[in-house]
Amino acid sequence: MASSMILYWGSGSPPCWRVMIALEEKNLQGYQQKLLSFEKNEHKSEPVMAINPRGQLPSFKHGDKIINESFGACLYLENQFKSQGTQLIPDSAAEQALVYQRMFETLTLQQKMADVIYYTWKVPEGERHDSAVKRNKEALSAELQLWEGYFQKMDAGSYAAGKYFTMADVMVFPQIAYAFRFGLSQEKFPKLEEYHNLVKERSSVQASWPPHWKETPQGMEILKDL
């Protein structure tokens, strides 16, 4: 079953990590996988381009079915293997609603983080503006405060959408972990830190933890002053 799946992925990429967590949660260990280097431009290699003309990671194939977008791949895995492993989408309509809400809110968090973390990497030096950096950081800070507020309203030990680990966690945890790796203050965001500490010990997360994060636990502290 899992042997007919292949995942091309990059270490530390939240979208890649989502798919890997979902595979672990659905007990689909044993899938084929290929770790590629963004620095070496391996995500533009022929095997990836053959199934993903965007040349992006993750790139995922199950038999003859290709699902490269991380949200799509994770929802596909849950739908195809509902009775296997962890149920990631609850049956209750009310619970489903919150799971889907938090899942798709993650896209806003992801974009606002990218606007800050990748600004100096993607914008040529001559086109950078301090006002843009300030504006992007303020937008990200407000977004993180929103998520901090969500957890403040929940019981201690809660996951992103309640007392059970769900697809909402598959989506948002990699982004939260990414934020702390880039220097997010534990003191300013204590509820996010509690959530981070809770989920990072989960077996699916440990099994898929980015290899280079183990070698260098702390990244650049781009977010330390948020």
* Major β-sheet strand ordering: 2-1-3-4
Q: Beta-sheet strand percentage?
A: 5-15%
Sketch the topology as an H/E string, one letter per element. Answer: EHEHEEHHHHHHHH
Number of strands: 4
- State the CATH architecture of the largest domain: Up-down Bundle
User: What would you call the structural class?
Assistant: alpha+beta
User: What is the highest CATH level, the class of the largest domain?
Assistant: Mainly Alpha
Here the CATH topology of the largest domain equals: Glutathione S-transferase Yfyf (Class Pi), Chain A, domain 2
Rg, Å, rounded = 18 Å
Broad shape: globular
The percent range for helix content is 40-55%
Largest sheet: 4 strands, mixed
Figure out the total of helices: 10
N- and C-termini, Cα separation: 45 Å
Whole-number mean pLDDT:
95
List the domain count as a whole number: 2
How would you sum up this structure, described in words?
With 226 residues, the protein is α+β, with helices and mostly antiparallel strands. It has 2 domains: 2-80, Glutaredoxin (3-Layer(aba) Sandwich); 93-215, Up-down Bundle (Glutathione S-transferase Yfyf (Class Pi), Chain A, domain 2), CATH 1.20.1050.10. It is 52% helix and 8% strand. The protein contains 10 helices and 4 strands, in the order βαβαββαααααααα. Strands 2-1-3-4 form a 4-stranded mixed beta sheet, with no helix packed on it. α1 links the parallel β1 (5-10) and β2. α1 runs parallel beside α3. It is globular.
